[in-house]
C-alpha cells in the first residue's frame, strides 16, 4: 500500500488514530501521525538495515534531547566549544572556568560537549546544577568529565550531527575557545548557520588566548576569504573576538538588551523586543539599514500575528516587522546590535 501524509490511507489512518489514543498523552497528534507515517514509509522504501538503523537512532537521540532540555526551555543557555586537550594548569582552562562561573552567576546555563579540557572547565565553572553535557561516543579521548558523569543532563550521542543540533538549537549564545579540528568544525558550523539564516541570530564569541589563536584566524578570513569574494564584509558582524572573558559575557548580555527573539510569518520577519521603539528610532533603523528590507517594505510596529498563538508566553512583547532581504543575515546581526542601543 502506498502511504500518504494526507488522510487518504483509510484503515491505516484509523489504526494510527487508535494507537495514539491508546498510548495517551500525545501532544500535537497531527505531527505525531506524520512521524508514524514516515517510519512506515521508511520501512517500505528500503530493506537496507544500516539506513533504517540510522533513521531509528536519529529519532531516538533527538527525542531524548528534547526531553532533557524541555524543562529548561525558558532558561538562557550558552554553548562552549574548545579543545579536549587543554590542561587544567593552562591559562585558557582557568579563563573558561571564570567565564562559565560569571555566566552562571547571571542566571545562564552552560552546554558543553561533556568531555575533558575546555568542556570540563565550562561545566566546572558553571557547576553541575547549571550544566548540560552533550557527549559523543568515540573510541578514544571522549568520555564524560567528572563534573557531569552522573548528571541527569548528560546526553551521550552516537551521531555528531544530532549533537550539533543540540549545541546550536538549545543555545542563546556560542563561545568558542581555541581548539583542534573538532572545535573548528563546530565553530564553522555556527558561522554557516547564522550566515544562511538556518539558526536564529545569536552572539558568537571567539575567546582568544594571549598568542592570538583567533587573531590568526581573523587574518586568514580577512586576507583570503574576503579578498577572494567568498564572504562579504557584513559577515564580520557574525562574530566577536576578545581575550577578556568579562567582555565575552558582556557581548552575550548586550545582545539581549532589547532584542528578544524572531520568527517568520507569511514571509514577514517579526522581531520581538523587550521594550517598544519610538517612531523616531524606527526611522533611524530604516535610514541606517535600507539593504535589510525588500523594496517598498517599511519597518512597522505591530501586535502579535495570529500565527504566533503557538507561543503564548511571547504574545504581549512589543514587536516590529518588515519584509527581509534574505541575503543579509550578517547585516541582520548588526541591525540587532543597533536596536539594542535604544
From TrEMBL:
Top-rank taxon, per record: Bacteria
GO molecular function: AMP nucleosidase activity
Stored InterPro entries: LOG, LOG_fam, LOG_family_nucleotidases
Main enzyme class: hydrolase
Catalytic activity: AMP + H2O = D-ribose 5-phosphate + adenine
Enzyme Commission number(s): 3.2.2.4
Alphabetical GO biological process terms: cytokinin biosynthetic process
Pfam families named in the record: Lysine_decarbox
GO cellular component: cytosol
The protein, known as: AMP nucleosidase
Organism of origin: Citrifermentans bemidjiense (strain ATCC BAA-1014 / DSM 16622 / JCM 12645 / Bem) (Geobacter bemidjiensis)
Amino acid at each position: 500500500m502506498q502511504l500518504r501524509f494526507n488522510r487518504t490511507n483509510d484503515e491505516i489512518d484509523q489504526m494510527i488514530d487508535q494507537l495514539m489514543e491508546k498510548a495517551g498523552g500525545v501532544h500535537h497528534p497531527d505531527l505525531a501521525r506524520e512521524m508514524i507515517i514516515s517510519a512506515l514509509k521508511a520501512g517500505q522504501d528500503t530493506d537496507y538495515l544500516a539506513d533504517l538503523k540510522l533513521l531509528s537512532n536519529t529519532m531516538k537521540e533527538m527525542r531524548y534531547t528534547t526531553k532533557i532540555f524541555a524543562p529548561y526551555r525558558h532558561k538562557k543557555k550558552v554553548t562552549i566549544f574548545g579543545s579536549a586537550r587543554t590542561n587544567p594548569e593552562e591559562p585558557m582552562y582557568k579563563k573558561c572556568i571564570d567565564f562559565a562561573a560569571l555566566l552562571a552567576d547571571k542566571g545562564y546555563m552552560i552546554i558543553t560537549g561533556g568531555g575533558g579540557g575546555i568542556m570540563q572547565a565550562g561545566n566546572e565553572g558553571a557547576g553541575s546544577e547549571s550544566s548540560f553535557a552533550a557527549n559523543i561516543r568515540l573510541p578514544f579521548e571522549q568520555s564524560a568529565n567528572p563534573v557531569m558523569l552522573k548528571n541527569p543532563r548528560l546526553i551521550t550521542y552516537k551521531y555528531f550531527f544530532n549533537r550539533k543540533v543540540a549545541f546550536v538549537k538549545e543555545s542563546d549564545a556560542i563561545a568558542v575557545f581555541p581548539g583542534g579540528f573538532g572545535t573548528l568544525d563546530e565553530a564553522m558550523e555556527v558561522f554557516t548557520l547564522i550566515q544562511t539564516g538556518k539558526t536564529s541570530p545569536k552572539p558568537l564569541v571567539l575567546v582568544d588566548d594571549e598568542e592570538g589563536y583567533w587573531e590568526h584566524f581573523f587574518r586568514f578570513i580577512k586576507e583570503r576569504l574576503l579578498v577572494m569574494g567568498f564572504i562579504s564584509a557584513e559577515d564580520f558582524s557574525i562574530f566577536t573576538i576578545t581575550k577578556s572573558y568579562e567582555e565575552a559575557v558582556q557581548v552575550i548580555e548586550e545582545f539581549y538588551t532589547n532584542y528578544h527573539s524572531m520568527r517568520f510569518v507569511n514571509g514577514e520577519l517579526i522581531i520581538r523586543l523587550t521594550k517598544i521603539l519610538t517612531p523616531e528610532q524606527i526611522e533611524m533603523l530604516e535610514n541606517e539599514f535600507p539593504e535589510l528590507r525588500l523594496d517598498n517594505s517599511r519597518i512597522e510596529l505591530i501586535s502579535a500575528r495570529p500565527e504566533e498563538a503557538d507561543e503564548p508566553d511571547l504574545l504581549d512583547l512589543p514587536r516590529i516587522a518588515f519584509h527581509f532581504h534574505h541575503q543579509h543575515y550578517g547585516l541582520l546581526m548588526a541591525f540587532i546590535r543597533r536596536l539594542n542601543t535604544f
